[in-house]
Amino acid sequence: MEIVYEAEKAYRGGASGVKYLFRGPRIDWGVILFAPGEELGRHVHRQVEETFFFVEGAGGRITVAGQEHPIRAGMAVRIEPGEIHNIINDTAAPLKAVFIKSSYNPTDKVDV
Q1: 87 is in which domain, residue-wise?
Q2: Which of 64, 70, 88, 96 is the most exposed place for a label (fewest CB within 10 A)?
């Protein structure tokens, strides 16, 4: 068993960005905070499935395989391997999501 507290972990970008809570051995998961104007960046995973669950914020948009969808809290999105995706916070408020990537493969991401 392993226990972590989100408040004790740091965002990769300082005040925002990715915050891993668990890395491996079978899944990656954590939270990601998008400040106003931030985006994830278009990328694809060759073998990893990625899921996002939006817990805070409204507005912004997620693009998956060329289809754009508005984001609102309570929305969950599962992304298959090979689907190019991006999240854009084009609102004036923060946007926060939980993410899960399975299976654990930290070298699987390809920026496009």
Answers
A1: 37-98
A2: 70
